[in-house]
Amino acid sequence: MPHFFALVREDVSNVMEHDPAAKSRLEVFLCYAGLHAVWWYRINHWLWNHKFFLFGRWFSQVARWLTGIEIHPGAKIGRRLFIDHGMGVVIGETSQVGDDVTLYQGVTLGGTGKEHGKRHPTLEDNVVVGGGAKILGNITVGKNCRIGAGSVVLRNVPDNSTVVGVPGHIILRDGKRVVITDPKQINDPLSEALSAVATEVHKLRQRVEELEGTDGKREPLSASLQRIIEDIDYQI
User: Fold this and answer.
1) Which of 111, 194, 197, 183 is nearest to 154 (CA)?
2) Is the dihedral of CA 138, 139, 142, 145 positive or negative?
3) Are 83 and 63 in contact (CB under 8 A)?
4) How far apart are CA 27 and CA 31, in angstroms?
5) d(Cα 229, Cα 190) in Å, to the nearest integer?
6) What is the pLDDT of residue 158?
7) How far is CA 4 from CA 1, 58, 79, in A?
8) 2-184: what CATH class?
């Protein structure tokens, strides 16, 4: 129990150091739901590790009702986790979170299916995840990484990287801009699907022309449709 209170003091000090909105230690202790959720988690994690699974899960639901933040008691979380404006944050059962990590509202550390075993992400030390970002599957986000707000990360991220976009792609690595010369590197599934549809439409037009004997004569495409096709060609 003394160790628990030492962690509480450490968490409060960490917020005072990093959050300019914090006016006093008492305010942080009483008003920061993200810290309350972490403190509940530590109790629930102790219960989980001592095989009181039902109690751990039940109290994690109580913490969710009180804070708006859901942390599975089976997750492994390091020291000084700061969940800022944490409403809607979800941390899955097999997630692993290192030291000095910051999560903003709406962040999800989730799975991608019904697989068993390690199915949630690992965040290494000093990672910052922006509001609404989703990090999904058994992937690793390396040390000192920044995940932009609203990003969806589905692949491993090397140390010292900044990721943005849906799906997420690296724009900075080791402080240097990453220039994407081939748009296919973004690997957008929706754009790939649109490209496949556009290709099939083109083949069907050619087949109809052959059957009708128009010898390649066709009505010009509308300006809007032509722009869509050009955009797809560029992206894919």
Assistant:
1) 111
2) negative
3) no
4) 6
5) 14
6) 92
7) 5, 20, 11
8) mainly beta
* DSSP secondary structure of 121-139: -EE-TT-EE-TT-EEESS-
Q: Splitting the chain (236 residues) into consecutive groups of 10 residues, what average pLDDT does each group show? A: 80 90 91 93 95 94 94 94 91 94 94 84 95 93 94 92 88 76 52 69 80 63 59 48
Q: Which residues pair with 122 in a beta bridge?
A: 96, 140
Can you give the pTM of this predicted structure? 0.72
The full set of domain ranges for the chain reads 2-184, 188-235
Which three-class secondary structure state does DSSP give residue 50? coil
Contacts of 51 (CB under 8 A, 6+ apart): none
How far apart are alpha carbons 185 and 108 in whole angstroms? Answer: 24
The pLDDT value given to residue 70? 95
